[in-house]
Amino acid sequence: MLAKPFIKWVGGKSQLLEEIREKYPHKIEKYCEPFVGGGAVLFDILSTKQPKTILINDINKELINTYSQIKNSCDGMISQLSEIQAIYKLHSPEENKTFFYEKRQRYNELKVNGNDADNLEKAVLFIFLNKTCFNGLYRVNSKGLFNVPFNNAKNPLLCDERNLKICSELLQNVEMRVGDYKECKDFIDSTTFVYIDPPYRPLTRTADFTSYSENGFTDKEQIELGNFITEISNKGAFVVASNSDPKNSDINDEFFDNLYSKFKIERVSAARMINSNAKKRGAIKELLISNIASIF
């Protein structure tokens, strides 16, 4: 079964799957994704490699809740999303804008005051907001409240029933955690394939659109992540990581070249999709970092 991500995610890897697939081990029995995000690589591996043991993690608890609800309450999610989709189709654009902000407020209320009984509703709203907000961006303010504006989508597919059911089936054997990526270390061993897609290093001071938690991801955190990747590589894990290429904006910026000097670094073309100015969207370089040379 071939599944695709059930949400649009900034930095999602659907467009780079061909390049990342080239780095898959021939056989994957154990898989870990410490920053699961939209799950493009996850669903590709679940669909094609069928690993026996899988761990996904993200610091964004509402994202992991949505994965969990698709896994455990898929029929209820489809029912509620279908109802919202029917309402959305009947509304005028102005009514849909009002509807969006009402649902955004409800989602934030549940984030602050909700309990486990509200988890399905939160997951439904998470998908609805993702499909109807600006560029599918997930951004929160310092209080952790979702604050992305409406995108005037005319006919978004809010309930992809077939794909949700396929995703649900594939997720049945997946362990899910909420927390810092470092907490995955106990799971990772010499039999594990690890794909790491962290918040990217911004190419410019104004380009940081990736804040999906209250905490930032600065150069200090990038260096800590580099140390983590070195540590799990030394354990024998097969590691592939993605990040932005600083040389897009400064040819002399050697930040990642220095940080990952002992790893194989490839520069691949990717499309920049989230700039508000469509003329500034286009092909840029991203990094694929791996320890493939030290394993084979």
From TrEMBL:
EC numbers: 2.1.1.72
Superkingdom of the organism of origin: Bacteria
SUPFAM superfamilies recorded: S-adenosyl-L-methionine-dependent methyltransferases
GO molecular function terms listed in the Swiss-Prot or TrEMBL record: S-adenosyl-L-methionine binding; sequence-specific DNA binding; site-specific DNA-methyltransferase (adenine-specific) activity
Residues annotated for S-adenosyl-L-methionine binding in this entry: W9, K13, D58, D197
Name of the top EC class for this enzyme: transferase
Substrates-to-products reaction catalysed: a 2'-deoxyadenosine in DNA + S-adenosyl-L-methionine = an N(6)-methyl-2'-deoxyadenosine in DNA + S-adenosyl-L-homocysteine + H(+)
PROSITE patterns registered for this protein in UniProt: N6_MTASE
Gene3D superfamilies hit by this protein: Adenine-specific Methyltransferase, Domain 2 (1.10.1020.10), Vaccinia Virus protein VP39 (3.40.50.150)
UniProt keyword annotation of Ligase present: no
Key words, A-Z: Methyltransferase, S-adenosyl-L-methionine, Transferase
A GO biological-process term: DNA restriction-modification system
PANTHER family named among the record's database cross-references: DNA ADENINE METHYLASE
Family note: Belongs to the N(4)/N(6)-methyltransferase family.
Name of the protein described by the UniProt record: Site-specific DNA-methyltransferase (adenine-specific)
